[in-house]
From TrEMBL:
Signal peptide: 1-29
Alphabetical list of Pfam families matching this protein: Glyco_hydro_28
Keyword set, alphabetical order: Glycosidase, Hydrolase, Signal
Similarity-based family: Belongs to the glycosyl hydrolase 28 family.
Entry GO MF terms: hydrolase activity, hydrolyzing O-glycosyl compounds
Protein name stated in the entry: Polygalacturonase
SUPFAM superfamilies according to UniProt: Pectin lyase-like
PANTHER family: PECTIN LYASE-LIKE SUPERFAMILY PROTEIN, PECTIN LYASE-RELATED
């Protein structure tokens, strides 16, 4: 904690909290990574001045190390999927081979406890959905492509998530993800940039044609699991949200390339949902929906499950999404979202760089959020708080359950070729307070356009163009980096 006191300004609450958490977490797990993780959360971060002496090389320590505490990609036992009869011709269905491989490797690793690794060699490996297991690595070699089956029955139906109460798109059960895991510990999906391609077009067409019977599956979903590392792979053409950790903790997603056509519906890149200790870094994402969306359940179902998304770092993400946002919060946020640090985000040709999206009936909160060093080009609305589209799980949502939004620090923002000034609207009946803008330069906004604020209040320091009245109280609260 010495580093904290070395800073010349007091720590904002989020950093202090994250640092304390990091310290206690590391004390428990005794990881050698203690210094890097706490340093990550303290150094080079906006309301702080220059890095503390002796820590000028912040690039080498700004990593997700410490969030994943599993054994890593190497395992005691390993085998190629070919051993289980898989054929990499792009035509043969390998569903049974993948399922057999995971079950058999789990068995072989049982005695040693060192876990197992399934290798996918170069080739085109068509498969339906299969489940992962604990202490397990799925390793995709360069040139390996896992292809999602085109038969909907190969994506069987599973129960909806309790925090959604139904499938997100259709009532009742939902299609399982292509690669799935539930109740697991220590799972790694990695490789030398091999590919998982969901071949989602069939599903997008069902959506466009309004002939979808059940909610589409994700490309990769982990439910109620901990110590997950997904890295060094390319994920393409997911039917629905691409990577979905839900009710998980200690999740690292790094060095990922996520691609979907820019018009492919709901192909979000990474959606941490009711999950904690999540770190996303160095990802390039282009898709038809948010690059990253932090969520926590839907209306009364999310409220009753009450599992927040908390302690999340999202750094060095870049990409484009013409109709959605670089980083989104919500619109499902009924379990609460807190302690999120987004930094070094680069977004272009997109609808928004950052959007907080909620709705009446959501309840929940979004608080202790820091968004720093965002660069954007050709973005329609750089920063947006929006009211959602009256999108509910069913008619039994609580009309008095308003979202609470507070303590949001947005600093060091540079945008060029923009169209609109920030649009900040609270959900009808709610008031959002404690929003701080510092060092924000937004250029290329249409001549007559002004900031648009409705029931959203806070402070602004060094902001161009001039903010709305609601941000001109000349305050200097601690949340905004003042003592
Ligand atoms: C937000 O930060 C404040 C100050 O550190 C802390 O008291 C509060 O518990 C945090 N809120 C949540 C929901 O984590
Ligand atoms: C995979 O896991 C899900 C959820 O735990 C379960 O419903 C499904 O039956 C499993 N599939 C297989 C093939 O074991
Ligand atoms: C979550 O997984 C653990 C095993 O890791 C299991 O004991 C627990 O019952 C699961 N919780 C739920 C809600 O399924
Ligand atoms: C991985 O593959 C993708 C898709 O081909 C490519 O765009 C990306 O640059 C590759 N990443 C690395 C690190 O080679
Ligand atoms: C969707 O409709 C188009 C045009 O009618 C058709 O070509 C396509 O096969 C349909 N897709 C699915 C998956 O039903
Ligand atoms: C949807 O349901 C209809 C009617 O039961 C069925 O004919 C069709 O094959 C189903 N489509 C899919 C993709 O499962
Ligand atoms: C990803 O690949 C790079 C370069 O091949 C390698 O140095 C790094 O260890 C890999 N990272 C992970 C988390 O697998
Ligand atoms: C800001 O983020 C960009 C990536 O978008 C990165 O190249 C740059 O180094 C960051 N600046 C600081 C001061 O960290
Ligand atoms: C304002 O933010 C930009 C972009 O991150 C950064 O380059 C610049 O140093 C910041 N200025 C101050 C005074 O912090
Ligand atoms: C805020 O400060 C500016 C510059 O010092 C001053 O012009 C303005 O009147 C102040 N606004 C309020 C509401 O006090």
């Amino acid at each position: 904690m010495a580093k904290a006191t070395a800073a010349h300004e007091p720590l904002p609450p989020l950093l202090l909290l994250l640092a304390l958490l990091a310290a206690s977490y590391l004390a428990v797990t005794r990881l050698p990574a203690a210094a890097p993780l706490s340093a990550l959360l303290l150094i080079g971060h906006p309301p702080l001045p220059a890095p503390a002496p002796g820590h000028s090389d912040s690039s080498s320590i700004s990593s997700c190390a410490g969030f994943y505490a599993g054994a890593g990609p190497a395992r005691a036992v390993s085998a190629s999927v070919e051993e289980f009869g898989a054929v990499g011709d792009g035509v043969t269905s390998n569903t049974a081979a993948f399922r057999r491989a995971v079950a058999e490797l789990e068995e072989r690793a049982r005695d040693g406890g060192g876990g197992a690794r399934l290798e996918v060699p170069p080739g085109r490996w068509l498969t339906g959905s299969f489940n992962l297991t604990s202490r397990f690595t799925l390793f995709l070699h360069r040139g390996a492509v896992i292809l999602g089956s085109q038969d909907p029955e190969e994506w069987p139906l599973i129960a909806p998530l309790p925090s959604y109460g139904r499938g997100r798109e259709r009532l009742g059960p939902r299609h399982i993800s292509l690669i799935h895991g539930e109740g697991l510990n220590d799972v790694v999906v990695t490789g030398n940039n091999g590919t998982i391609d969901g071949q989602g077009e069939m599903w997008w067409e069902l959506w466009w044609n309004r002939t979808l019977n059940h909610t589409r599956g994700h490309l990769v979903e982990l439910v109620n699991s901990s110590n997950i590392l997904i890295s060094n792979i390319t994920l393409r053409n997911s039917p629905f949200w691409t990577v979905h950790p839900v009710y998980c903790s200690n999740v690292v997603m790094k060095d990922l390339t996520i691609l979907a056509p820019l018009n492919a519906p709901n192909t979000d890149g990474i959606d941490p949902d009711s999950s904690s200790e999540v770190c996303i870094e160095d990802c390039y994402i282009e898709s038809g929906d948010d690059l990253v969306a932090v969520k926590s359940g839907w209306d009364q179902y999310g409220i009753s499950v009450g599992k927040p998304s908390t302690n999340i770092v999202i750094q060095r993400v870049s990409g484009t999404t013409p109709t959605c946002s670089g980083v989104g919060f919500g619109s499902e946020m009924s379990g609460g979202i807190s302690n999120v640090l987004v930094r070094d985000l680069h977004v272009w040709n997109s609808a928004q760089a950052v959007r907080l999206k909620t709705d009446v009936g959501r309840g929940g909160y979004i608080t202790n959020i820091t968004i720093a060093n965002v660069t954007m080009e050709k973005v329609k609305v750089p920063i947006r708080f929006s009211r959602g589209a009256d999108d509910h799980s069913d008619d039994n949502y609580d009309r008095t359950a308003l979202p609470r939004i507070s303590n949001v620090l947005i600093s060091d923002i540079v945008g060029v070729d923009l169209q609109r000034a920030p649009m900040l609207e609270a959900v009808a009946g709610a008031v959002y307070e404690g929003i701080c803008f510092r060092n924000v330069s937004l250029r290329g906004i249409r001549r007559q356009d002004r900031w648009h604020c409705e029931s959203v209040y806070g402070e602004a320091h060094g902001v161009f163009p001039a903010p709305c009245e609601e941000f001109r109280n000349n305050g200097s609260s601690s949340w905004c980096g003042f003592s």
